[in-house]
UniProtKB/TrEMBL annotation:
Keywords: Hydrolase, Signal. SMART domains: PP2C_SIG. The keyword DNA-binding does not apply. The keyword Hydrolase applies. Residues 426-642 form the PPM-type phosphatase domain. Pfam families: SpoIIE. Residues 1-26 form the signal peptide. GO terms for molecular function: phosphatase activity. This is SpoIIE family protein phosphatase.
Length: 643
């Protein structure tokens, strides 16, 4: 009963905490979401207002552009009339100048002017002399434009010229070639001071339309919209009558900073009131457009929603606690049974299926509720643990058998390869060998075999694979080599025999790189054959020599391959070192290879040194280079020396 009461209290506390936490979190999320929605609406409104002002501004600008286009058309038409008259009625320069001077007087009365050039010489200068000092937006003057673009004037050329003061005597010119054979150019100019004044009219021209827009916003906008002149900070237009007083209390400079534009910014007035504001800059009119709203009007609806959510959450919480007390009795008894059975399962022998079945039999009850599911899951878990334990025991037994077989295979392989103490030695010859497989069994092979009283066969090889398959292939290769050399075959014939026999049944296309040398220990003369193996190195009195003659490809994949042998002399006190690519291709943790150069560096000063010392020096250098990095290939070395 005490346990039941404790369970009830714990369950009720968990329910209260969980439900209360969820309710409070939901209320806070609703409050935050409401504020974010209101601020997003504020930014959307200011974008719409900005677009509305932009549309009205462009409508105003379009009217001015139409006036400019009309002036351009009028200039072209008047120039064409003058050109037609001159080309058809002017018989000489005097007539032409007299006619155009009369036209110039008429033009001057209506704000126009005229200029005539011949071969870049001014025959009639404009009455408004400031025209010649005026420059276009691109920096051109009237004369520089005409002279530079003379060939393009046949179809007419417009140029807008502004006086240095940019206040008066601003002209739009149209130039045209008249009488192309005599190189006449006529320019008609129109004073555009009135156009410029109209074009640069102040913002008062579009304010009447904006008043209508702001009147509509006043009835529908939550907050206040305003337009402020960026130059003097004066209020131009607002949707609220008290906007001027409110804005005077706010730090608008913080709102109008470039990094704050088009963002929601929180401002505090001098009296401590908080506002959410958003502003944008309308560059054509040098205006700031802003919308602001006091914090209370944004947060109050959110608080109302949060209170509603809290009331609903409290009602749900009360219902949950009631249901918890009603269900706790059944839940407690079922959990007691599950706890007892779990303790019983923990005490039985998990490797005994019968004991597990007896302990879990009463847990597989009926019912679809969560407690019944937990009971069935516990029963299933007990049986699963027992089954897995049986499988684990069987797997360990199988692993032990495999380990034993690998150890046996390794012992057999070691038995096939001669130990250092078994290698032939004499007063003329000494040798030593070293092999370190990458796995339990390897694919490298070596042998030093005495053929007769004077000759020895030196063999080293590397099978393409690793592990047991490589070990089997290696044993076959070594047996064939020993047999052929024992029958008196030369290194060349031995290599051909091994290749042909291995290729007969080699479905996996395995191959062996090999080196075979037959050495006369008394004379030092040798014959050798290399089947794609690493070059042997001779340590002589005068330095190191790599026997870099390749006699043929690796043995095994294809029958009928041809091999050649070469001969040489191993002098007294010279040492021969043979190795597999497990030495040269040993890697460190930086994925760098040990390489042939490092082997040569180790052997540089080892002339006349005993074979075992030379081998140990190479092995130590490789181990130091590799460090803790994993060995990836078998390492094999054979060292021979004439005494």
């Amino acid at each position: 009963m005490k346990f039941r009461n404790k369970m009830l209290c714990v369950f009720a506390a968990i329910t209260v905490l969980a439900t209360g936490g969820i309710t409070v979190h939901a209320a806070l999320e609703q409050r935050l979401q409401h504020i974010q929605n209101e601020l997003a609406g504020q930014m959307q409104t200011i974008r719409l207002l900005n677009n509305s002002i932009l549309g009205q501004y462009f409508a105003y600008i379009n009217q001015q552009i139409i006036s400019v286009l009309s002036t351009r058309a009028e200039l072209r038409e008047q120039t064409q009339i003058l050109t037609h008259y001159v080309e058809n009625y002017a018989t000489n320069d005097a007539d032409l100048i007299a006619f155009l001077q009369g036209q110039q007087d008429s033009f001057n009365q209506v704000g126009k002017d005229l200029m005539l050039l011949k071969d870049n010489e001014i025959l009639i200068a404009p009455k408004s002399s400031s025209v010649l000092q005026g420059r276009s937006m691109g920096g051109k003057t009237l004369l520089s434009s005409v002279r530079a673009d003379y060939n393009q004037l046949v179809d007419g050329y417009y140029l807008m010229l502004f006086s240095p003061e940019r206040k008066k005597d601003n002209f739009l010119s149209f130039s045209h070639v008249i009488g192309a054979n005599d190189n006449y150019v006529i320019c008609v100019l129109q004073n555009i001071d009135n156009l410029i004044a109209y074009y640069s009219a102040d913002s008062q021209s579009i304010l009447p339309q904006l008043n209508e827009t702001f009147e509509e916003l006043q009835n529908n906008l939550s907050g206040t919209a305003a337009i402020i002149n960026a130059q003097d900070g004066n209020l131009i237009l607002a949707t609220a009558d008290d906007a001027k007083q409110t804005l005077a209390k706010l730090d608008l400079k913080a709102l109008f900073k470039p990094e704050a534009l088009n963002k929601n910014v929180e401002l505090t007035s001098q009296s401590g009131e908080k506002f959410f504001a958003c502003a944008s800059y309308f560059k054509p009119l040098d205006w700031y457009i802003l919308i602001y709203r006091d914090e209370q009007s944004v947060i109050a609806p959110a608080l109302t929603q949060a209170k509603t959510s809290l009331l609903i959450g409290l009602a749900v919480l009360a219902l949950a606690v009631l249901l918890a007390f009603l269900m706790s009795g059944r839940l407690t008894s079922s959990l007691n049974l599950i706890a007892q059975k779990a303790d019983e399962i923990a005490r039985v022998n998990l490797s005994d299926p019968k004991a597990i079945a007896a302990a879990t039999s009463s847990l597989a009850g009926k019912g679809n509720d969560e407690v019944a599911s937990v009971g069935r899951a516990l029963a299933l878990m007990g049986r699963s643990i027992s089954d897995n334990l049986q499988k684990l025991i069987a797997a360990n037994q199988q692993k032990d058998r495999m380990q034993g077989e690998l150890k046996a295979a390794s012992a057999i392989q070691e038995g096939m390869l001669p130990q250092s103490s078994e290698l032939p030695q004499s007063s003329f010859f000494s040798c030593d060998a070293f092999l370190l497989p990458a796995k339990e069994v390897g694919g490298d092979l070596y042998d030093v075999q005495r053929l007769n009283d004077e000759e020895l066969a030196i063999i080293i090889g590397d099978v393409s694979d690793k592990g047991v398959p490589a070990a089997l292939f290696m044993s076959t290769t070594l047996s064939l080599a020993r047999c052929a050399l024992g029958l008196g075959f030369s290194p060349q014939k031995t290599m051909e025999l091994i290749n042909n026999r291995l290729s007969e049944r080699n479905p996996n296309m395995m191959f062996v790189t090999m080196y075979i040398m037959v050495l006369n220990e008394k004379t030092g003369q040798y014959k050798a054959c290399n089947a794609g193996h690493c070059y042997p190195i001779i340590i002589g009195r005068d330095g190191l020599q790599e026997l870099d003659t390749i006699s043929g490809p690796a043995v095994g994949p294809l029958s009928g391959m041809e091999y050649a042998e070469y001969a040489g002399v191993l002098n007294i006190n010279e040492t021969l070192l043979l190795y597999t690519d497990g030495v040269s291709e040993a890697q460190n943790d930086k994925r760098e290879f040990f390489g042939t150069e490092r082997i040569l560096q180790v052997l540089e000063k080892r002339y006349g040194r005993p074979c075992e010392e030379t081998l140990q020096a190479v092995v130590d250098a490789v181990a130091s280079f590799r460090g803790d990095y994993q060995q990836t290939d078998d390492i094999t070395l054979v060292c021979c020396q004439r005494r």
